[in-house]
Specification:
By secondary structure, the chain is α+β, with helices and mostly antiparallel strands. The protein folds into two domains: 160 residues, Methyltransferase, Cobalt-precorrin-4 Transmethylase, Domain 2 (2-Layer Sandwich), CATH 3.30.950; 140 residues. The strands form three sheets. It has a four-stranded mixed beta sheet, with helices on both faces. The chain has a three-stranded antiparallel beta sheet with strand order 5-6-7. Strand 1, helix 3 and strand 2 form a beta-alpha-beta unit. The longest helix is centred in the last third of the chain and has 35 residues. The N and C termini lie close together (11 Å).
Length: 320
């Protein structure tokens, strides 16, 4: 469900696609209809800027994506009379309340710079814009100032090809799901980084054992228990299966985060193999079997990474 490329990256891989406007038309045609991660807004001006602001915030509250301004629903490109300076000005939402627990300056969600595309060079001028939106950990609010004296903050979220306004209860559920996805994605990225560093950075002489500090903090501040579901904790940490009539356990289920235990086991094997050899032949044999243990460790960690990645994708959580 994650976007694989944007207009910016697409242009870099299609250097011979022609003038900027034609390249842009080719790109949006390849996307087809609007989606989870793209929205088109046609005629915009300083007087009608709530729709574009809503589109940017909605994408930032989901997985990010692109807003095409000056593009209609059929992906025609009439352009807009809006200037780049005016666009950036109303995305700042200068009159909106500010807070450390939410975002109201929409330019914080935009991967700079906004790409302007000249549609018409007539005196009145027409320009289309590509606004590349980055998803945020904090909720992003739109300052609805369409009615004087009734201004308010609103939480909009992209839902399929639509943009949806969330109420109080929906907003709480959305925030919990958002926080859960953020924790799980960060745990995967930490595990991915650490597992890739195990091979070159194991220090047998100093006793270095890889740890997962973000995971540890999630346990300490109770995020692991308050934000993750029971099935999440089972997948990450594992769970001993209930014994049958004969007693005992049929096995340990789950357990995607195994970096520390795997390294400890293989470290012990390596030390055992090279300890106090009777002769050089035994030392060579110990080093060879120890290296084999490290190779097995590397293969197991790679498989764990793939299992973790597939599990996250099955949860609908983007990883990039």
């Amino acid at each position: 469900m994650a976007a694989t490329e944007t207009f910016r990256t697409w242009r870099a891989t299609h250097p011979d696609s022609g003038p900027l406007l034609e390249t842009f038309k080719t790109y949006i045609s390849s996307l087809g209809a609007e989606s989870w991660e793209s929205e088109a807004k046609a005629a915009i001006s300083d007087k009608g800027n709530f729709g574009p602001r809503k589109a940017v915030a909605a994408l930032a509250n989901r997985w990010g994506g692109e807003v095409f301004l000056g593009v209609d629903k059929n992906l025609n490109v009439p352009g807009s009379s809006l200037s780049l300076q005016a666009l950036e000005s109303f995305l700042h939402q200068a009159s909106a309340p500010k807070s450390e627990v939410f975002i109201s300056d929409l330019m914080e969600c935009v991967r700079a710079p906004v790409t302007p595309i000249i549609v018409s060079e007539t005196p009145e001028g027409r320009t289309a814009f590509v606004v590349e939106v980055v998803d945020q950990a904090l909720p992003v609010y739109v300052w609805n100032d369409e009615h004087k004296g009734e201004e308010k903050l609103e939480l909009w979220v992209r839902q399929g090809s639509e943009t949806r306004l969330l109420g109080g209860v929906d907003g709480i559920s959305w925030f919990r799901d958002r926080r859960r996805a953020s924790i799980l994605r960060a745990l995967y990225l930490e595990f991915d980084l650490m597992s890739r560093q195990v091979w070159p950075d194991i220090g047998w002489s100093t006793g270095i054992t890889p740890v997962l500090p973000y995971f540890q903090r999630c346990m300490e501040d109770a995020s692991l228990y308050t934000m993750l579901r029971p099935d999440d904790r089972k997948a990450l940490l594992g769970e001993a299966g209930e014994g049958g009539r004969g007693g005992g356990s049929p096995g340990f289920l789950g357990r995607l985060l195994r970096v520390r235990s795997l390294v400890e086991v293989q470290r012990s094997v390596f030390k055992q193999e090279v300890r106090e050899p009777d002769n050089l032949a035994m030392l060579d044999y110990g080093l060879m079997t120890g290296a084999s243990s490290l190779s097995n460790l590397w293969n197991e960690l790679k498989q764990d990474r793939e299992n973790f990645k597939r599990w996250l994708q099955g949860q609908g959580i983007r990883i990039e």
